[in-house]
Amino acid sequence: MVENNVNMDKFEKHAVITYLLLKGMSGKAIHDDMLATLGDNAPAYNVVKSWLAEFKRRRNSVEASFRTPQRRSKYRKRSNY
Asked: Phi and psi for 45 in degrees, rounded to 5?
């Protein structure tokens, strides 16, 4: 019997989401499956949804990315109205 208190780190959860997506499961089905398996340690549905969107945009890595802040220009482009 599988325990419902399985601890997985973010990397492992993202890998599972990717795998289930490749198997053709929907976001709701993935979340339900992870909820049944991981119990309270399952990621929220919004987290599953956002990772699905990332992978559908051709993201190749399951590692979390840290965005570097974009520098703003001192000068704004003005529209020619």
From this structure: -60, -40
Q: Convert the pLDDT of each residue in 36-62 to its tens digit.
A: 998 889 999 999 999 888 887 775 555
Name residue, tokens 């990621």. 43
Contacts of residue 64, defined as CB under 8 A and 6 or more positions apart, other chains included, come to 10, 11, 14
Question: Which pairs count as long-range contacts for 27-33, CB under 8 Å and 24+ apart, including other chains?
Answer: 27/52
Angstrom distance (rounded) from CA 48 to CA 46 = 5
Phi/psi region, residue 6 (left: phi>0; alpha: psi -120 to 50; beta: rest), is: beta
Q: Do residues 62 and 54 touch, judged by C-beta distance below 8 A?
A: no
> Out of 1.10.645, 1.10.287, 1.10.10, 1.10.3130, which CATH number does the structure's domain 10-56 have?
1.10.10
